[in-house]
Amino acid sequence: MKNILNAFSIVMLLFLVSCDPDDLPGGENIDFTLGQPEIAGTGCQDTTIRVSDDGKSVEIDTESLTVKAGSTFKSLARINCLAAVPISIPSNYQVAVLPATFKGKHLLQEGASLKVSSETFLAGQKGQQAETQILGKEKGTFKLGTDEYNNASVSKCGEDSILRLNLRLFLKSKNKEAASAGKITGLAEGEKSIFKLKFIKC
Q1: Quick one: which of 97, 103, 134 has its CA closest to 119?
Q2: Domains held by the chain: number
Q3: Which of 34, 56, 68, 69 is the most buried (most CB within 10 A)?
Q4: Is residue 62 within 8 Å of residue 55, measured between CB atoms?
Q5: Which residues are 8's β-sheet partners?
C-alpha cells in the first residue's frame, strides 16, 4: 500500500508541475543542503558554477559560455558545460527539479546557424530539455527555457540525489568575411538559480 501511495504522489507531483509549478510549495523553508558542485565541459571553468552564500541556490558565471565561427575562426564551434550538485533531501519530502530560463545574445552572418540547448535532471534519470535555434542573418537576443514540465525529474522520498545541468552551444558559419557569435549572458529576469526546486511531502 505504501508503494502505491508513493507512486500516486509522484504522479500527482508531475501533474502539478506540468500544469503550474508555482502551485507547489517552494523550498525556501525546507531544510535541504546543496553540496560542492562538480564541473566539466569545454565551456566551463572552475568558477562557472557555484552555490550561493545561503546554500539554497546555484549561481552561474556565463563569461566563458561564448561561441564564435567564420572569418578567422573555424567554421564550426561547439562548447558545453556540465554541472553536478549534490542535494541532501529531508525525510518525508521529495523534490522535482525544473529548468531555469537563460538569456543570451547573438550576431549571425548570412548562412550561419546557432543552436543552444539545456537539459536539467536528477542523476540516473532523464530530464527536462529546452532548445532554441536561430538562423542568420540576424542580430538580437534569445531565451532558452520551456513551459513544459512533463519530463521533470522527481527524487525518491527522502533520498539524497544529484542535480545535473547540461548546457550546449553549437554555431556553424562558413562566412569568410565576418564572424558570427553566440553567448549565454545569464539567467532570465526573476531567475535566481540554475535549478528550480519544488518540494512535496511524501
Answers
A1: 97
A2: 1
A3: 69
A4: no
A5: none
